[in-house]
From TrEMBL:
One of its GO terms (molecular function) is UDP-glucosyltransferase activity. InterPro entries: UDP_glucos_trans (IPR002213), UDP_glycos_trans_CS (IPR035595). PROSITE patterns: UDPGT. It comes from the Eukaryota. It holds the Pfam family UDPGT. The keyword Glycosyltransferase applies. This is Glycosyltransferase.
Amino acid sequence: MEQAPQTKHIIMLPFMGQGHIIPFLELAYNMLHHNHNLNITIVNTPLNINYLRSAIANRPSPSSQIHLKPLPFNSTDHGLPPNSENTDGLPLTQIIKLFHSSASLEPAFRLFIDEVVSSVGNSMVCIISDVFMGWANNVAKSFGVFNYTFTTGGAYGTAAYCSIWMNLPHRDLANGETYDEFAVPSFPESCRFSITQLHQFLRAADGNDEWSRFFKPQISLSLESSGWLCNTVEEIEPFGLEVLRNYVKLPVWCIGPLLPSIMLKNNSGLDTNPGVIGERTGKKPGIEAEKCIEWLDSHPIGSVLYISFGSQNTISEMQMMELAKGLEESKKPFIWVIRPPVGFDLKGEFRFEWLPAGFKDRIGKRGLIVHNWAPQLEILCHRSTGAFLSHCGWNSVMEGLSQGVPLIGWPLAAEQGYNSKMLVEEMGVCVVLARGVHSRITKEEASRVINVVLDEREGGKGEDMRKKAKEIGELIRASVEINKGSSFKAMNDFLTTIIK
Ligand code: UDP
């Protein structure tokens, strides 16, 4: 009689942020889709485990093979406000504390791995940890277990992010000089980066600052793992992947996009049935998906601008005011997810004083303002959505591009400046409107850029961007085709490698 294949155990450790937790969960589902004999445990802090619990419960087909393991964590021990276990809602100045606090999970994680290894022995195949949780590689090594690094970013953005933090190529520390333009190790000399693409903390980093003290060791440890998984598609980032492979000098599997399969059916711009995609994040949106879709249904195909700065970033009050005026002037329909501007409590109530007086009345049905959190996937899948003003967080980029939606970039943190550079220079699907929270924007410039990207006329920049975004969307959707797509094959190859 044929023996049933032995169940294999995988432990996953995302960093504590929505933009990391969501793709880790998708990765778990994706692996299970390829191999039913897996038992996957996602480890995190208690509140993040609660998010994951409700995200799993809300999925159309929750999986009994995904387990959740909370590790003890008290945010106040790390100088964070009570119950702060996620980048969401934390002001930028506190995020570094969250980064450093993540390493405090190591002893409890070690105990947990000890328990798993003692109970399942060599059917525990590997730990997949976030690039920011490099310490998991040390834990894996001490138990003789393989460790793989998962970067939730794209190839280009990840390579630039890691190489710049590790080498600080924008600085001459001996002379205290900072360069406006510079080359980045592992990138060709001709690919120049600008200081404006760097986050404010990175601009001033000297290798000994609190950000470098976190990123350098975590990235170094991740570079010692057995290979990297990257949430991208081989065909859409050929240059970025060449650079990333050159940088990490390890196998890199492109297993993206990690999106619900309904978004990857081969017809972009599909009208979604509300609730089909489901609430993946366990977060309550400021508007029901049904209402959003009803509103989108009342607007012409490709006419709506969707605006969101992701799960943790926000813009300044002054920028918000100018953007609102620019939206008014552009005359284009829009959905705008508004989070409190910089300096306000990110978990606080929405205030109309952040917008020009009478804005809502003048906009009427042309604009939909959503407080804090929107059903983003449903919006991006809708055929009325024609452009996405985004902070260029990688999940948002993949979500938009998978539906052939071009972008207006407003990078705010992390590797977003490099993502937007790549989207402009390599893909031609993005126009950058502003960078960071200090960049001065005017209503005229905002309105101009919105009109360029949403311009329906043939032969213009808008049409060119739409065409390119559509082609990339097709490549993304083709990559998951069963037995044929590059990401499908890469996932099979990865699983074959770990389950020898
Ligand atoms: N997101 C959402 N609704 C919102 C804002 C964000 O569903 O109103 C989701 C979005 O779809 C994406 C994630 O949150 O999956 C944000 O990840 P991303 O990498 O774009 O940015 P981050 O939040 O990590 O900066």
